[in-house]
Amino acid sequence: MPRPDLSALGVKYRRIPVMAIGRDVYCDSRIIIRKLEDLFPEGALGASTAEDKAIEKFLEIWNIEAGIFTRASQLIPTSMPLLNDPKFTKDREEFSGRPWSKEHIAENRPEAVAAIRSGFRFLETTLLADGRKWVLKTEKPTLADIEAIWTFDWLNGLKGALPRELISDQKYPKVFAWIARFNDALKIAKAQAPKPATLKGDAAVERILNAPFADKDLGIDLADPLGLQQGAEVEVFPIDSGTQHHDQGRLIGLTEDEVVLSTQAKGTEVRLHFPRTGFRIRAVTGGGQSKL
Ligand SMILES: N[C@@H](CCC(=O)N[C@@H](CS)C(=O)NCC(=O)O)C(=O)O
Questions:
Q1: Which of 19, 33, 222, 280 could form a cystine bridge with 26, CB 3.0-4.6 A?
Q2: Stretches in the chain below the pLDDT threshold 70
Q3: Which value, in Å, is the radius of gyration of the alpha carbons in the chain?
Q4: Which of 184, 262, 186, 187 is nearest to 220 (CA)?
Q5: What pLDDT score was predicted for residue 286?
């Protein structure tokens, strides 16, 4: 923080990643991945059978909602120089809702190590146990690998995060080999992909605000349990982290797994999309009552 480029788009949501396609802005990796899968089916990475889709979804829930990522973030080493900066630790406290003193991090560490070690063990003894290359026994990595691997890969690359006497390639050889394989595959995929252009923030804002909308109109599910009407003024915010940052706007889309707000930036309409899971939608004035 601050996030001037997001502010210029009228976005209060503070987390990364965010994605814009045209004037539609997507907040949270879950909706970003879903949209990319829908919009670019020729490059889709998701499973095709119902059973594999379930594994993929459970791995997403395991990492994001069931606490693996939260536990991983508790393994940030206390030797990190940024932890000496009170501005940084205060910001982290506001973001996460928990203390970020070195003492608190150290005190919490054994429990977090236990949770992450149990995650390594789970992967080693179930999904990867038979020696398969990829989680869904495919030739190439799929979305299920991505959903499963990202926190473990992040911790593996973060010096001092994992206690190597407890969590190593000796103890969990299949998991560490999979992480290495994934990084090799990623390197090859990146080398083959078109080179992304890099824009300065103000140029990106300009381009987004001058673009058409890219997404379809979702409409409002009138049977939705929140009982909200089209055009209701609502606020949307995450309930797991970054919870103080509320986006407000007119409700223009509400389905089982997506909420869309119409907001303004520099007099131009921008549409903000969020997943339903992990977010609260609250009526601000009129137009329906949120029951939360
Ligand atoms: N459920 C969200 C979680 C996003 C998240 O926690 N992002 C972290 C970084 S991994 C973040 O933006 N933290 C705020 C910050 O560092 O300022 C998602 O999947 O996109």
A1: 19
A2: 286-292
A3: 21
A4: 262
A5: 54
Give the 3-state secondary structure of residue 47: coil
The answer to whether the CB of 245 is under 6 A from ligand 1 is: no
Token code pair at residue 258: 């997506």
Ligand 1 pocket: which of 15, 63, 276 to mutate (most atoms <8 Å of CB)?
A: 15
**Amino acid in position 187:** K
CB distance 30 to ligand 1 below 6 Å: yes
Considering only the C-alpha atoms of the chain, give the largest distance between any 2 of them, rounded to a whole number of Å: 60
Q: Which residues, including other chains, have CB under 8 Å from residue 249's CB and lie 6 or more apart?
A: 233, 234, 261, 262, 263, 264, 272
Asked if residue 29 has its Cβ within 6 Å of ligand 1, the reply is: yes
Question: Tokens 């609502």 identify what position?
Answer: 234
pLDDT of residue 198: 96
Q: Is 45 left (phi over 0), alpha (psi -120 to 50) or beta?
A: alpha
pLDDT of residue 1: 86
Instruction: Pick the closest to residue 19 from 216, 267, 235, 272 (CA basis).
Output: 272
Closest ligand 1 atom, residue 64 Cα:
1
- Ligand 1 atom at minimum distance from 73 CA: 10
pLDDT per residue as tens digits for the range 27-38: 999 999 999 999
- Shortest CA distance to 271 belongs to which of 289, 259, 255, 280? 259
Note the pLDDT tens digit of each residue in 245-286.
Answer: 999 999 999 999 999 999 999 999 999 999 999 999 999 975
